[in-house]
Amino acid sequence: MSDHVTGPVGPFEPPCYAVVFTSVRGGDGQGYDETAECLDELVAAVPGFLGMESAGSPGGLGITVGYFRDEEAIKAWRSDPEHRVAQRRGRAEWYESYVLHIAKVERSHGFVRG
Q1: C-beta separation of 18 from 103 below 8 A
Q2: CATH 3.30.70.100 correct for 28-105
Q3: What's the pTM?
Q4: Residue 107 three-state SS
Q5: Per-domain residue ranges of the chain
Q6: What's the pLDDT score for residue 109?
């Protein structure tokens, strides 16, 4: 299993939004890692972006959760021109399937061993 975090890990002050992207990768993945790295930098610059967590399995299943302050921030990310290009490339080359969920976070708490 691989995973990565971009930005702070919650908890985040509610209300905020979670964008859950669950995918199954296929194909040879050429260019995927470079594109993902570029997108991580782009999303971090979106006003209202709070952070992101991702995990994946060797079989190609991936789950990424992005956290945003409001729906305007989600819309800004969705319409980013470079993100749009990556979306099209994902459907054409990288994903066998994906599902996207957007949920309002009403409570958030956490634990850190320390």
Answers
A1: yes
A2: yes
A3: 0.89
A4: coil
A5: 28-105
A6: 87
